[in-house]
Write a structure and sequence with these properties.
Structural class: alpha+beta
Strand content: 35-45%
Order of helices and strands: HEEEEH
Oligomer: single chain
Strand order of the largest sheet: 1-2-3-4
Length: 96
């Protein structure tokens, strides 16, 4: 399955946001990994100064680690930050 041009633009924009809020004071992350799949959860403040948790799932394909799925979770306050790595589909399934 190949992503559309719009999906690629969104993905690139989210990765830029990750780079931005990983540099912010108070941001932190959790990662879990096995031999074929990994999930990364990053807590921080996004560009509009709202607290968010970004969840990224990546998988190993032909020896490369590739982003497979992302979910940006807008949260009410930094008390709602995640305390462990969660895969994005798991987060979505609890919300919708």
């Amino acid at each position: 399955m190949n992503p559309t041009r719009t999906e690629l633009k969104i993905t690139i924009a989210k990765l830029i946001e990750v780079a931005y809020f990983r540099r912010q004071k108070g941001s932190y992350y959790y990662q879990k990994l096995d031999s074929q799949k990994g999930c990364l959860s990053i807590n921080g403040i996004e560009l509009n100064k709202d607290p968010v948790s970004l969840h990224i799932e990546y998988k190993k394909e032909r020896g490369l680690w590739l982003v497979d799925y992302m979910f940006l979770h807008l949260i009410e306050s930094n008390e709602d930050y995640v305390k462990k790595a969660l895969c994005p589909r798991d987060v979505e399934s609890t919300l919708f």
